[in-house]
Write a structure and sequence with these properties.
Layout lengths: L1 H16 L30 H5 L43 H25 L7 E10 L5 E8 L6 H9 L11 E10 L3 E3 L4
Antiparallel strand pairs: 1-2, 1-3, 3-4
Length: 196
């Protein structure tokens, strides 16, 4: 008899869970480890915190701010700039030869970023242009300040060279070096003509 009551109760729960109606009323019981609790048949969840974890959008959850995708910063044109080897000049201040070697190392990248885009954009101007540079270099070889002037009539050429030069690496020296030199661009290539 006890087995029959258990079988009828189990059958009643099965019918209720499937949307049917039991033929005999089932007695309510508390869920145990052997009989898991049944969720409401509609599947609705009144808990807003639980709803937010179920893939709701920002409009579904007015209490939470919308997460906008952060815009990606523009690529750094100087990220792949090759640097000459880290060396020590052994001198009190950098020499003209030290500067010439550094500018030659950066020349291809400088031409690619600053000169070629202006020539290819059809800007009219002379075949040869001079940009005057003044650069202050720390004892560790890092550029502390860089100023460029000239480059007319190619708009922005001096500013591009200046921005580029701020990232150059020079050899180490015993004191801060203040360097003045021109960089000459021509339609064939850009080159350093002398260091003052």
């Amino acid at each position: 008899m006890l087995v029959r009551h258990a079988l009828v109760a189990a059958l009643s729960w099965t019918l209720v869970a499937c949307g049917g109606s039991p033929s005999t009323p089932a007695t309510p019981s508390t869920p145990t480890d052997e009989s898991p609790a049944l969720s409401p048949a509609s599947g609705a969840n009144d808990d807003p915190a639980a709803a937010s974890t179920q893939g709701g959008t920002a409009s579904d959850n007015p209490g939470q701010p919308a997460k906008a995708a952060a815009p990606e910063p523009p690529p750094d044109p100087y990220a792949n700039m090759p640097h000459p080897p880290d060396t020590d000049s052994g001198r009190f201040q950098l020499s003209a030869d030290d500067v010439r070697a550094v500018v030659e190392a950066y020349r291809p990248h400088l031409r690619e970023l600053c000169w070629t885009p202006r020539v290819n954009n059809g800007e009219k101007g002379p075949d040869t242009v001079r940009v005057a540079m003044q650069v202050e270099v720390s004892k560790e070889g890092q550029v502390r300040t860089a100023q460029a002037s000239g480059g007319q009539p190619y708009e922005g050429l001096a500013g591009c060279v200046e921005e580029h030069a701020k990232r150059w690496h020079f050899p180490k020296a015993k004191q801060v070096s203040t360097l003045m030199f021109p960089v000459v661009f021509n339609r064939g290539e850009s080159k350093l003509i002398r260091v003052e």
